[in-house]
Amino acid sequence: MSRLLLGVVLLGNLSVSVTAQVTLAPPAQVKFNSTDYRNILHWTPAPSSSSLQYDVQWKIYGEADWLDVDGCQGVQKLHCDLSTVTSEPREWYYARVRASSVASSSKSAWTLSPRFSPRWDTKISPPVLKLNLTEHGIVVRVKPPRALVRKLHSNLHYKIYVTNTSGKEEVFQMNCCSNKLTLKHLDHNSEYCLQAQTVVPLQAKSSVRSSEKCVTTL
């Protein structure tokens, strides 16, 4: 009888030990989403998980040490801004995320992001397009999506797409330092619709077109 009781006690202790060692499922789909060099890491929680906190670390490709991301330790949000620590556009970076539970003091394994390059992986936004109608034509002004984009790409320029009521499209080019482009010799009392696109020639990279803006000539 004593041996039977001892077996029951041992099994009970084993059950408690196994329960205490249950680990959390790690986060999934850890990846960078970068636009105009704003480098945001995103992830999704494991299925059937709630009330979890997350820790984020980063490192430069080829280096051994992982570093904590300030402001992204023990957070409940599912994203983290790594723009400051990944600010060198020519470097390659990794990030990783793990989940933790305050209730059980357990932690998941780390989930690694794909290798990330700000220079090659960031998406460029279209410029802001401003139109003024004068007796001489349409004055077009553009503003880069973010000053940092212009700073990092001195050869950046813009394409201006102009469509009239007949459906014919013309394309004009402006360099990054031009203040304005004046479209002359236009048909009177006709609608012209314009879109703008940012182009980075050395990287064969361009933005999507901006939303369309239309004006009617005098």
TrEMBL record:
The keyword Disulfide bond applies. GO terms for cellular component: plasma membrane. One of its GO terms (molecular function) is cytokine receptor activity. SUPFAM superfamilies: Fibronectin type III. Residues 5-107 form the Fibronectin type-III domain. Pfam families: Interfer-bind, Tissue_fac. Residues 1-20 form the signal peptide. Keywords: Disulfide bond, Receptor, Signal. Residues 122-217 form the Interferon/interleukin receptor domain. It comes from the Eukaryota. Belongs to the type II cytokine receptor family. This is Interleukin 22 receptor, alpha 2. The lineage of its organism: Eukaryota, Metazoa, Chordata, Craniata, Vertebrata.
